[in-house]
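One record is kept unedited as follows:
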Amino acid sequence: MILLVVGFVILVKGADFLVDGASSLAKKLSISEIAIGLTIVAFGTSAPELIVNIFASIGLHHEITFGNILGSNIFNILMVLGVAGIIAPIAVQRNTILKEIPFLLFATIISFLLAFWKRELSFSDGIILIIILIAFFIYVFGILKANPLQATDIKEFSFLITILLLAGGIIGLFLGGKFVVDHSVKIAKILGVSEKFIGLTIVALGTSLPELVTSVVAMMKKRNDLAIGNVVGSNIFNLLLVLGVSSIISPVAYRIALNPDFFFLIAITLFLFLTLFVGKKHKLTRLEAIIFLLLYFGYILFLFYRK
């Protein structure tokens, strides 16, 4: 229990460093905050998923490999954006709604089709996912200078301090997430639940805590683009980078029992797009955030029912 508390403390401080460092970098280089959120921050918060899946692939724990990604992405959309949206309505750029979220939807669908087609993600499938990720990087590179950060309330640090904040934040998120995951998995094993259930709940929750804490801290500091960019970018990294690397290490068997979870992820990603596209002023309101949270709690109840 002590390690669990220590893990949460490290997570919060790591997120604080990461947000400050990312904001400073965006302002210093006169680039868009959303681009930083989609790349550096998203990669940093996705590091726990990557590390967990690498070890899961090496150990041939395929249900944890898929369960971790599906559970994490569902958690990111419904819980992370839900909690962040309750703190304050999340204003989303039009470009994010029309390009980045649809790209996430495409990545989700293509990942499902590749896994479902042969009931596994093979080495060649992993290469395909990485190639799609490279295309995403090319897109982000094109928007680096679009809408450069102009906020005057952001403290701009020297390059050395900025890099140290970014590195310290990522390391803090990784260590904090590891403490939480390790302790949570031990509890789950004592309770005698399946690897699929562990992957979709305990491991997914633990590896997604960096996204949750980082987006909450970002909203408290009024960094909307970092909050939404973190979630969208992290989900894209999880699907393309983490699953891609996992299947390159070792073919990842896919069980059709995970179809409902994949369908649910596709549905809520589409729901996120429609909510922001149809809504006024392209904002995720507090009411919509509450709906997201209710959907997540309903999903958890479904998992308990079918475990």
Q: What stands out?
A: The longest helix spans residues 159-191. The chain is about 80% helix and 5% strand. Residues 2-306 form a domain with the A middle domain of Talin 1 fold (CATH 1.20.1420.30). The chain has one domain: 2-306.
